[in-house]
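Example (one chain per record):
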Amino acid sequence: MVIFHSLLMYLCSLPVKSPQSQNKGTTFIRTCFNGIGILSIPYALFEGGWISLIALFVIALICFYTGILLKKCMDSNPHIKSYPDIGAQAFGKKGKTTISIFLYLEHFLLAVEFLILEGDNLHKLFPNFHLHISKKKIGGKQVFILLTALVMLPTTWLRSLSLLAYVSASGILASLILVGSVFWIGAFEGVGFSEKGVVWRYNGLPMAISLYTFCYCGHAVFPTLCASMRDKSQFPKVLLVCFIWSTISYGSMAVLGYLMYGEDLMSQKPSNEISSKIAIYTTIINPITKYAIIICPIAMALEETLLVQNNKLVSLIIRTTLVINTVIVALLVPFFGYMMAFIGAFLSISGSILFPCLCYLKINKKLRNFGLELIFILVIILVLGFFAAAVGTFISVKDIVEHIHMK
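Predicted structure:
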């Protein structure tokens, strides 16, 4: 409580520009609201064992550093407004196209994952729910995916990042409630924190790394958020606050869940206790508050390509069409966990770790001289990043293929 109060006072005491600029761009606090999120990751800890927590913190540090590299790339040209613009600055049209494909595919699949997660959680809460339309029975999960999309749709119509910030700000409170609910279940409902788990599971480490990286796959939005700020020099502080908050949330959820259920984590079913219901409902709220932020970069890119940024009707049609497409894919994709691991291994590592380093090395010609920063980027980040991406992608694709054959 003391830490949170001190942090809030610090954010509120930051200086702002003159009144003439009050309506232009987002503030430090609003940008923090846009960037903070939480997904439950006890399963990642279950896959890799306790030692894999080191990977969580290492990935957080690396992703924070690569976020700073993106800001430095933006400083090289005041006309850069998005991540693909950074690719263009570094490698020309091919760089812009490559980064656009990776990042927008990542965000599209992430939006799909949110819908699948919502469908799964709501179906667990209401397992007997279904609809009959024209004598055809529609399963509860499919219905909940459709209903969730309808709830999320109006938030995607908001074109201002400042307004979207107020929507996603509720995710901060949801994160606190979620961690608190899980702790309450363990401490006061007879579950306890006595499970030991395993120290090391080497064959599950690639999956754990993929899932951890998935949690920090926000780099596609970073340049957009930075460009929208009134005082762009505050952006590194925004990243620091967001990464600290997110890592504490992720780590707390992982440790609490693993201590409570250990190796029986995957077999646990939601109980009828109020605290369990609160935890599930809060997990449902979080994707709803973040869905529009995920869709926004794709919609903005399409609007820019079609030169319809100022046409509100066309913008509404584009964003609605995007939501419909994510619903279609969510209804067709049956494997949430494996797809999440693939996104983390192939798309998130590329977009959050590899591409920022490659673009920075290309744009910052001073690094051509052999130095500590160059060694750190080449040896530590790029080599390990390529290795993790290759192994994680291979394992996740293998799991997906095996899952399809089992159907």
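Caption: The mean pLDDT is 77.
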